[in-house]
Amino acid sequence: MGRSKLRDEILGQTKAAQENGSEPLLWAVRISSLLTSHGVVLPCPELAKELVSHICWENNLPAPWKFLEKAMALRIVPPLLVLGLLSLRVIPYRHSSPAAFRMYLELLKRHAFNLKGYITLPNHDETMTMLEEELQLCKAFGSKHRENGGFLLVLFLFAIVWQLVDASCDDEGLFELSGMAPRWPVRAFREMDVDDGDDDVYGEGMMKKSQRTKLEISNKAMAMELIGEFVQNDVTRRILLLARQNISTQWEGFVDNLRLLVNHSSTLRNTISGLPEILMQLISPGARSTVMESRRKPLLNSAGLCVGVSWSALWLPLDLQLEDAMDGSQVNATSAVEIIKGLLKSLQAINGTSWHETFLGLWMAALRLERDPIEGPVPRLDTRLSMLLSITTLVVADLIEEQENDDRILDDLISSLRKLQDYQSLLTPPKSVTSAANLAAIKATTFVSATKLDGITSSETTLNCTGSLHHLIIESCIARNLLDTSAYRWPGYVNGNGNKPQHDPPPSEMTGWSAFMKGASLTPAMIAALVSTPASSYAEIERVFEIAVGGGFDDAKIAAVSILCGASFLRGWNVQEHTAYFIIRLLSPPVPTDHAPMLNVLLVGIAPVDSVQIFSLHGLVPELAGSLMAICEAYGSCVPSCGEEISAHVVFSNAFAILLKLWRFNHTPVEYGVWDVPPGGSQLTPEYLLLVRNSHLMTSSSCTGRTKDPNGRRLAKAACCSTPEPIFVDSFPKLKVWYRQHLACIASPLTGLVNGTTVHHTVDALLEMMFRRLGKNQPSSTGSSSSSGQGSEDGSCYVRPKLPAWDILEAVPFVADAALTACAHGRLSPRELCTGLKDLADYLPATLVAIVSYLSAEVTRGVWQSVFMNGTDWPSPAANLAGVEEQIKKILAATGVDVPSLEAGGGSSPAVLPLPLAAFVSLTITYKLDRASQRFLDLAGPALESLAAGCPWPCMPIVASLWTQKAKRWSDFLIFSASRTVFLHSTDAAVQLLRSCFAATLGLNNVCGGGGGGAIITSNGGIGALLGHGFGSHFDGGISPVAPGILYLRVYRSMRDVTFLRDELVALLVKSVEDIAAVAAVPVKLHRSRNGCPSMAAVMTKVKLAASLGASVLFLTGGLGAVQSLLKETLPSWFMSTRHSGGEPGRNGILRGYALAYMGVLCGAFEWGAGDRSPSHPAASKRRAEIIGCHVEFIANAVDGKISLGCDPATWRGYYTGFLSLAASCMPAWTREADGGLLRRLSRGLRRRREEELAVALLVAGGLNTMGSAAELIIETAA
Which keywords does this chain's UniProt record carry (predicted)? Predict the structure, then answer.
């Protein structure tokens, strides 16, 4: 029998049964037998369509409805398809046919929640496809037909609930009142035209009007009850939340309509007590987290706990990142705001902390940076204060803006700032800003007492209002509109014992910025006041900039430039980034020589290490580099002339010295390629800096609108401040030629000097200038003694050559080679060599760069003989070498490092250095320790340290000894620097240092003896034990111990074998976990469980702390390459090769697994962030999907048994459950990028291992690609 005949027979039997009043069950049995006899698989979608069409509307009678319900109950027709078909036909006609609408609601109540029995029916996918054809769900929701029937099931349930919401709003007349519109058709056009006398069109004409009205009221209540039941039912609620997560655009419209109903429906309020609150739960901000509702693993349960260690230990990675940013030898092309913001988001996601806890952790980490540090010749306290009072405040402001100024995040900010008052030990200001803190306290006191403060300076007060860093933090937040002056009235904020100013100073006493803004002229006294006092507002700094670019006198311009580079740049925290923008604009003028005086003042003003670091913190290094390259290109091509106030050589040298601080110019290219991707620090080449600068410029077109990237807007503004066009290295041909020569000089021996060329003549001219006092014995570019005899004995009549700086730099490597060769062959004495090189550097200070580059390259080639530092030919370190070596041993011993293989170089062994290194160190110690020389020593110092560190031991102690003789006040720093080189010569020393870092952080002390090892608690551990409080000669007997974390942060950049350290970090983490477990097995009095041992929460917190330290160290040391190799190679290899090591296989094993999982996820979060964009390397996020996908595939294969594992089962279970739980709940962006098929295969494997909730969580996090599978699994695993 054909389909049409079968259809006719079924309809015929249905009409006959209807007329005869047959029992629905009897009818259903007959229809089922008929379909089965014809080979039709039940349930039959075609029959569902026929039955619904039969009812609507020619047979809208009780009997057909009963037949339909019985067919649904016996699965003769697919219930979901029937409900979908009825929703289109019944809801728009619910007023004309209230009885039919009631039947629809009853069927919905009976069948919409029995999803578990429906998804396993035959033809389920076919049924859902037919449902899609009828309802056009994908078109309605703007989605493509994806995956399986589960995807359409989510859309269907969402549509059903939304239809009920729209119908309820329409019944209440809310759309007309609000002006909003329904999303679904809730009122048919034909129904609106039916008059009272023709209301039998839908078969319900016999119903009395009172009955109809009563039924309509009842229907409204039942519809709203059903909405509430969809929200309260565990399965349907989770499926609706899937729609919220993955169909966000349409969800917003649903939320608007639901909120309209909740807020304005009287029926809803009177239907069920608490129903409005139940419905609001669906659209509350926290509802998304309930999609998974998994039995969270201990790794997640302990996220917010810090039992046994300080609460702030959660933020250990942030402390390390901030401390690392204080390394003055490095600059970063990425803004510290962007890095810290991304790190905070990742830590907040993983730790599950509130914004209050997040902000408090940030403030405390930044406050720990502030101290009176003595790391090096310059304290660099300004950099640390900039991080606290400018960068941190910008991070907070950006986070609040990204949250669209939500009142809750603002409240959390206020509560965190008020909480800071409980940490007074962190709030004591350093001496340099005590007056600023006192003035901030006076300002608050005066405001509270309603006394005018205008014109008061710190010198005009008694300073009895003692201020703290808390006052400065509050002022910085007020300046950026994060707080208002109501903060002055917080309890305890104002010191009640402080004396208030008794009167306003007379106008004649007004000085500083107040007087300047009121029109006072720039007298020398005024200039001195403005240079030493930071501006407090943008208007003040803008006024100074207008003078600098105005058409007034040169003296006024130079004064304005001096003011900009003074305290306003270093300590004007509230306007620091604006001051930096103005400086960059001033560094980008036209090229005429009359700008040389102003440019030179600018260049000298921003030359200190603190200034360069502040540009780096604000992410302005690329913009600064672009401006400096233009200056160098222009002034390096100028021939200096007599009578110039500021010569082109001076401007060029100062600009060139700053430019070369912005990348690792003295490091060999081989260091850049340790991994398949270069590490972040090595990317600071001229090409890379310009690439980043141009990327900032390209985003400037979006600066006009408000985007969710405030820091991007700031950087785009900075890029626009300089040249408004993209620039490339090819834009600077002279710089490009020098840079290529520089790289060639590093990579291979010097060649290419041809007799008779311009470069050859320049080399001879420079050699004559350097060694003119030697007469005929001066070296020459040909390697033989000069016979010209033109130089006079005293050189009094000699005129230095007038050459462009670029021509000189091109010749310097050949000059240095000739001089060094002459010294090696005895034609020049060491003193003459150093004097000649110093004369060359004095002639053009920028030549020091080329000299450093050449000498460094020659040392690494190892072809020069060593020379004896005997005090006759070369300076001798003998006076203090033994003491320096002894201090180095003490520093290492204090951090738990013992390296017996590095013996002292003193005693009977003569001190020797390679000839180029001896020349290098001898040249540097000829410089005076003044501000003028400091700019160039800042450039040569790191190069000398790097070079000496790479030479055999004890070259570095010898160099340190020579420099401590010259600068005794720097001895602590120099000895500390020398001690760092030990770790470059001994991988075992590096491992010992890392072991000390773990022991200090965890409060553990490894005790070896008797053939075994143990671990005991020796301190609370935490960040204080790891980073300490700097170093220096604070104690009797010499230098104080150095915290192991500080030592490692100042060492790791020079370590080349990162692969070895990566593997050792994993081993150290596993060993630390075993030590933690061993301690947990010993009864203790503090934080113990009932059996006297530490609770699982305390143990897990320690495990997380160890893992966060391991992840932080690995990320800082190896960057992207280390993270990739950890997930692709190290962890898979470890699990496949490691065998059970003894102890408690259950508890210890699962702790090991959790620790490795936490470390792996943290490493990925640090590099790629928790969201859709990487915080530090946007390009790196393109590889995230590949790396995470590769690792998830490894887990899936191992779960499926396709890979043989060597670790114990507990360790493996702890790892895969921990990693997948964290990835699904904390890093959903990672999971969304994974292949949907892979996630579904992994979820099946997890279910076989009885990890159903984890399988659901993984599919939920997979987004649209796995939404259908997630819905089906939610239904299948429902109780």
Answer: Membrane, Transmembrane, Transmembrane helix
